[in-house]
Amino acid sequence: MNAQKILSIFIIFALLACTLIAVGCIGTDNENDIVENEQNEENIISLDEIIDIEWQWSGLTETLPASQSVVPDPENYTLFLKSDETYSIKADCNIGSGGYTLEGNELTLAPGPITLAYCGPDSLDSQYLSLLSNVTTVSMENDQLVLGIGENGDRMLFVKGEVVEQ
């Protein structure tokens, strides 16, 4: 009889736990969707804010491990987005181009042709190109272009260089 009581109590607790989890998930998902939608609407970037400007890579914020680094020569690492959904880059002694898609605040940079010269041991060209290939989001903060990298919260920071009128 003791085993039957323990089994009954276990079943009651299991049903109670499942009910609480189900109720919690339903409420949390709806609340998260609302907050996420509001944030996405606020973060939608206008193409006019970012095209026809030479953006210079000025820093990197990484989350794991948490660190911030400054790019010593931002003018050597540039990104130029054009209205025809193409971009051009300078990665130290190399230049390249490609296409991009922008949907809301989601940005994808498709690789294109690039020169592959060796820029020296102190160059950040390989890191820069690797980061650009993993861009997922774009936003503007304090007049800086911010590119989100992957899903872990890393961010590339760009300052305005030249504005090119077309």
Automatic annotation (TrEMBL):
Q: Which domain of life is it from?
A: Archaea
DUF306 domain: residues covered: 69-156
**What InterPro entries does this protein map onto?**
DUF306_Meta_HslJ, HslJ-like_sf, Hsp_HslJ-like
Which Pfam families does this chain map to? META
- The protein depicted here goes by the name META domain-containing protein
Species this protein is from:
Methanococcoides seepicolus
